[in-house]
Amino acid sequence: MKKILIIFLILIVLFITGGGEESNVIIPKDAIRFRVIANSNSKIDQKEKKKIANKLGADITTILKDSNSLEESRNLLKSKVGYFKNVVENAMREDQYDNSVDIDYGYHVFPQKEYKGVVYEEGEYESLVVTLGEGSGKNFWCVLFPPLCLLEAEEEETDKVEYKSLIKEVLDKYF
């Protein structure tokens, strides 16, 4: 009887959560985005963009880990712009990557993007934007608050993200 009850509860959860199918994440209107724009689309510039996005992303995650509100996240990010610039400049110096860097927190225009079947409209969004050199290359972007950067939205590799359901995996394994 216990086994039937457990299966029944799992089926209810699967029904409520959509059965583990891919889900579309909609960015809330009150969100803070993060964007790193490469100097160009050359391999060197794209490699540096990825390094900077990863490095800053890790630092930002640490800085925002205890933040519980949009206002608190906003204030933390604004207060750290100088620190972020130093981090980027140091990383570029280590790589002997000779380009300028501009970091700005405010409202910036984002082009329309399609990600996992969801169209994110072009518009002006609150964001932390890092521009390397001329800023004419492909860019990395994600959402810092609420934290959705795990759903990396890089222009080139967006269809490599895979969503899984732990419940579905357990069911497949044991039933």
Explain the overall architecture.
With 175 residues, the chain is α+β, with helices and mostly antiparallel strands. It is built from five helices and six strands. It has helices at residues 2-17, 43-64, 70-79, 81-94, 166-174; strands spanning 32-37, 101-110, 113-115, 118-120, 123-132, 139-145. The strands form two sheets. A four-stranded mixed sheet has the order 2-5-1-6. Strands 3-4 form a two-stranded antiparallel sheet. Strand 3 (113-115) and strand 4 form a beta hairpin. Helix 2 packs antiparallel against helix 4 (81-94). The radius of gyration is 20 Å and the shape is globular. Residues 17-23 and 150-166 have low confidence and may be disordered.
Main sheet: strands, sense, barrel: 4 strands, mixed
Q: What's the end-to-end separation, in Å?
A: 16 Å
Beta-strand proportion? 15-25%
Helix content: 40-55%
Q: What is the approximate shape? A: globular
Give me the secondary-structure topology:
Elements: H1 2-17, E1 32-37, H2 43-64, H3 70-79, H4 81-94, E2 101-110, E3 113-115, E4 118-120, E5 123-132, E6 139-145, H5 166-174
Parallel strand pairs: 1-5
Antiparallel strand pairs: 1-6, 2-5, 3-4
Q: Briefly, what is this?
A:
41% of the residues lie in helices and 22% in strands.
Q: Key terms for this structure?
A:
single chain; 175 residues; alpha+beta; four-stranded mixed sheet; two-stranded antiparallel sheet
